[in-house]
Amino acid sequence: MAEEVILLDFWSSLFGMRARIALREKGVDFDLREEDLLSNKSPLLLETNPVHKKIPVLIHNGKPVCESLIIVQYIDKTWGRESPLLRSDPYQRALEVFWADYVDKIFPAGKMAMFSTGEAQKVAKKEYIEGLKVLEGELGDKAYFGGERFGYVDVSLIPFYSWLYAVETLANCSIGDECSELVGWAKRCMQRESMAKSLPDQYKVYDFMLKVRK
């Protein structure tokens, strides 16, 4: 009997992109279902994530898994163990979980930088760029956060690249100038097939965010 893998998602969601990337890195076929998050969430979404009522939700053979980082961990454990995203060493694994969690902590500042104005925007920009610089310091001169191996922290952070143009334009800043090494890492990641299939065009994201902001 074939596996049933469904992903409830929304095209511009940074968190949904993580699940898409992880599934494609593992070569898993899945049914991608776009949700209408503004006015018409599907009964399936409300049933499978009754607590938060948010995407992404991975449904594997009828069993739902919620929250993007938990979904990525589940995918990593379930499929393709010969090419793991998380390291097997407990300490290294703990570090990867820490840095992925840190990525989520800087997300609100990036969102605030796009959608606020004046002093609030100035503070948010500063906080966001400082957070990215911390991540750039952790990356160092490595090809990926896991060294030569594309892994869990890379999956967690790379979706932010699809929002780069929107953040820079709406917040009037240059992340490319401030964090050039991190942008170089992102361009390296974008050469992977899983990225090309999973991350939306930056200009499409900008147009959408501009509408949301208005």
Structural class: alpha+beta
Instruction: Give the helix proportion (percent range).
Output: 55-70%
Evaluate the radius of gyration.
17 Å
Multimerization state: single chain
Per DSSP, what share of the residues sits in E-state strands of 2 or more residues? Answer: 5-15%
Series of secondary-structure elements, N-terminal to C-terminal? EHEHEEHHHHHHHHH
Give the termini distance in whole angstroms: 48 Å
Strand adjacency order, main sheet: 2-1-3-4
Q: Class of the largest domain in CATH?
A: Mainly Alpha
Largest sheet: 4 strands, mixed
Net shape = globular
Reported CATH architecture of the largest domain = Up-down Bundle
CATH topology of the largest domain: Glutathione S-transferase Yfyf (Class Pi), Chain A, domain 2
What would you note in describing this structure?
The structure is a single chain. By secondary structure, the chain is α+β, with helices and mostly antiparallel strands. The protein folds into 2 domains: 5-78, Glutaredoxin; 90-213, Glutathione S-transferase Yfyf (Class Pi), Chain A, domain 2 (Up-down Bundle). Helix content is 57%, strand content 8%. The chain has 11 helices and 4 strands; from the N terminus they run βαβαββααααααααα. The chain has helices at residues 14-25, 43-48, 68-78, 90-115, 118-139, 152-157, 164-171, 175-178, 180-189, 193-198, 202-213, and strands at residues 5-9, 31-34, 57-60, 63-66. It has a 4-stranded mixed β-sheet, covered by helices on one side. α1 packs parallel to α3 (68-78), α4 (90-115) packs antiparallel against α5 (118-139) and α7 (164-171) packs across α11 (202-213). The longest helix has 26 residues, at 90-115. The radius of gyration is 17 Å and the shape is globular.
